[in-house]
């Protein structure tokens, strides 16, 4: 017979059941609680405590069983792990004591601690590593702990150490998986962000896209991008996350002082947990929303500072992390390329306009002005012939009138291109007016094919894009094509409205420089991209030109 009248078979069965139960908890806190609860039940004690250390990714904790929460709150402080309790861990010894207070290494209880008499404590060890220490106090039968109790507890703690190790591994693997999933989400968000930024070519849109993406990527409440001028002060400031009402209450935009100025001068990332605690901070203007953590990253390309990204107030955390910093720095590198591309696009646009103006000036000089000059010479000859040869003078006047009419048509073609009509909202009427004016000015036959039901399906924004694209295409035909016939067709297919414009004119080489920079075709292509549509063109010299533009019906 064994203590409490149990047989060896029953005791072994109880130990097996206890070890099985503690192995099923899964997470570390649950495992620790089960160890003390089952250990107390196994040895029939009034109290059980398990203390762990900050090692091997196991947090320091003090788990108890047999003390109700209200009584636990009355204890002044947790045991310090000194004296007798410290010896269990440091010396890796087991202590079985009949009267706890009489032991020379006992240092007393903290205020509010329940009284304990008999005591059994030992370390939880595996492979020489101490994971914690377990204490049992006061057997329910009032008797001291026995050597059998000690052996049972030693067997139980060996399994408990394995359970703790397994729970730690499970939580570590779970943490690794969560970290990997988080990194995958962040990389996917970064990929999406860089694609979105690189898809914009207008500088203002690029800057706004950058701050919106940065705010989402770093989970920040506010984001901004400041562009410094040559004097080191901010003359462009784009923000994200701030309500318009709040923004209007701020008396002035940031000037590039304090932490913002430090980024401009030092050209390196600054990350601080509290803005107000940093000696470089100069505070906020009146009406500015409160901001605590800060992350600022310069946007640099080729040694030139293109701007600075500012992020404040980390959502769901007290400050920005090193991961946030790495992500935003990576985004800043892509943003620098996007800003440069947008600037180059605008420069190409300006060069195209300059080139177009030069071409128009040459056309006016070589064509219209020369024609008017020729009419002037004809009129001078007419003046000389009026009295001597009236018939000849009459023929000369007819030629002059015909030449002036031709010049007027040429001038109208330029006006058609340079001063387009505004769209009034009715697509059917707008297209009809374009066609009638085009035919009157160019004497080119135009066939317009469009079902009224199709035209009424498109949204207002799509209708305007259709009108402007048709207007641009007709202007190009009038100036360049020398066509005799133009076909315009509009129909609806698979949720898209399709515009086709075909001419039988001279066509052009699509690989030529004039095609690549001409602002007419560039405008049509950009308009299609802005509407999430498509733009296709086919042309060869001598075979005319075919345009196909598709817009989503709803824009």
Write up what this structure looks like:
By secondary structure, this protein is an alpha+beta fold. The protein is built from 15 helices and 15 strands. Helix 1 packs parallel to helix 5, helix 2 packs antiparallel against helix 5 and helix 11 runs parallel beside helix 13. It is elongated. About 30% of the residues are buried.
Helices and strands, in order, run as HHEEHHEEEHHEEHHEEEHHHEHHEEHHEE
- How many strands? 15
Q: What class do helices, strands and sheet pairing give?
A: alpha+beta
What percent strand? 15-25%
User: What is the rounded Rg?
Assistant: 42 Å
Helicity level: 40-55%
What are the segments in which pLDDT stays under 50 over at least 5 consecutive residues?
Answer: none
What is the terminal-to-terminal distance? 88 Å
The major sheet is characterized as: 5 strands, antiparallel
Q: Major sheet: order of its strands?
A: 2-1-5-4-3
Give the number of helices. Answer: 15
Bulk shape:
elongated
Mean of pLDDT: 79
Question: Which features characterize this protein?
Answer:
elongated, alpha+beta, 50% helix
Gist of the model:
The protein is of the alpha+beta class. Helices cover 50% and strands 20% of the residues.
Write the layout of secondary structure elements.
Blueprint: H1 8-22, H2 28-42, E1 45-52, E2 61-65, H3 69-73, H4 83-90, E3 95-97, E4 119-126, E5 129-139, H5 147-198, H6 203-217, E6 220-228, E7 234-240, H7 244-249, H8 258-266, E8 270-272, E9 294-301, E10 304-314, H9 322-385, H10 390-418, H11 427-442, E11 445-450, H12 452-457, H13 460-481, E12 485-493, E13 496-503, H14 513-517, H15 519-530, E14 534-539, E15 545-552
Parallel strand pairs: 11-12
Antiparallel strand pairs: 1-2, 1-5, 3-4, 4-5, 6-7, 6-10, 8-9, 9-10, 12-13, 13-15, 14-15
Helix pairs in contact: 1-2, 1-5, 2-5, 5-6, 5-9, 6-9, 9-10, 10-13, 11-13, 13-15
